[in-house]
């Protein structure tokens, strides 16, 4: 995996093979950040990276100037790897080892962008809990967006606050916004 753009552009990050992750592909990540680049100034936003895994998305935001990044994952190895990588690159990424759903139930902070990359084998009911908790607990700023990454075989268009989806290969990003 590599950082696509920003001050760490081109840097390769090698995650330990034992981590239970499926990093977002470079092609999908580049397409996603092209969309976000047209909507946000990265140094003015706060980001919540859920199911953060290797921290791939968090590093991309940090490389582009975002300083308020929180990465949440239940796996200790993932959190340890993100902390080590963030320290090596001098990135300001706060990590929280927690079940994502419990975190969303208890969080009181608001974010500009919430990115969730749950396991692709979640059923629609499990996927639906993410936007449900984000909007129920008012975790997005007024102009914020929730982005859920999932397989192209999963359809989230019937969920409340759904705005649109973009597909890149086998990856799909569904965008949810405050109505």
From TrEMBL:
Annotated coiled-coil segments of the chain: none
Enzyme nomenclature, EC number: 2.1.1.171
Organism of provenance: Winogradskyella pulchriflava
InterPro entries the record matches: DNA_methylase_N6_adenine_CS, RNA_MeTrfase_RsmD, SAM-dependent_MTases_sf
Record has Methyltransferase as a keyword: yes
Gene3D superfamilies referenced in this protein's UniProt entry, alphabetically: Vaccinia Virus protein VP39
Protein name: 16S rRNA (Guanine(966)-N(2))-methyltransferase RsmD
An MF annotation (GO) of this entry: 16S rRNA (guanine(966)-N(2))-methyltransferase activity
Record's keyword annotation contains Transcription regulation: no
EC class: transferase
Matches recorded under SUPFAM superfamilies: S-adenosyl-L-methionine-dependent methyltransferases
Keyword tags: Methyltransferase, Transferase
Superkingdom, natural source: Bacteria
